[in-house]
Amino acid sequence: MPHLGKTARPSAESAPESETDAPTGVPPAFPWDDALSLGLGVLGWRPGDFWSATPREFAAALGRRARPEPLTRAGFEDLLAAYPDRT
Fold first, then answer.
1. How many CB atoms lie within 10 A of CB 53?
2. pLDDT classification of 36: cutoffs 50, 70, 90
3. Structure confidence at residue 25 (pLDDT)
4. Concatenated DSSP letters for 27-42?
5. DSSP labels, 17-84
6. Around 67, how many Cα atoms within 13 Å sit in the side-chain half-sphere?
7. Is 29 in contact with 13 (CB distance < 8 Å)?
8. Distant-in-sequence, close-in-space partners of 13: CB < 8 Å, separation ≥ 6
9. Dihedral sign, Cα of residue 27, residue 15, residue 30, residue 38
10. Mean pLDDT of the chain
11. Residue 39 CB: number of other CB atoms within 10 A?
12. On the CB side of 50, how many CA atoms lie within 13 Å of its CA?
């Protein structure tokens, strides 16, 4: 394949630390070690269970699907009283 004048960008693993801190438009690598520790260690899943789970199932198993209760009118009034607008 002929060279088209583009240079390869180093991966996050091979780049010096100072280069990975700069915004490049490339998302960071997925934290597989953390995911495996959570799935196999904390959740106690077998490897087959971990690898067959969808991201949504994994998040639900970790309790990440729970959302906070919506702000009620009384809660909003409490916030207004605690943090009044400055005029």
1. 16
2. very high
3. 84
4. PPPP-HHHHHIIIIII
5. HHHHHS--SPPPPP-HHHHHIIIIIIS---HHHHHHS-HHHHHHHTTTT--PPPPPHHHHHHHHHHSP
6. 3
7. yes
8. 29
9. negative
10. 79
11. 20
12. 16
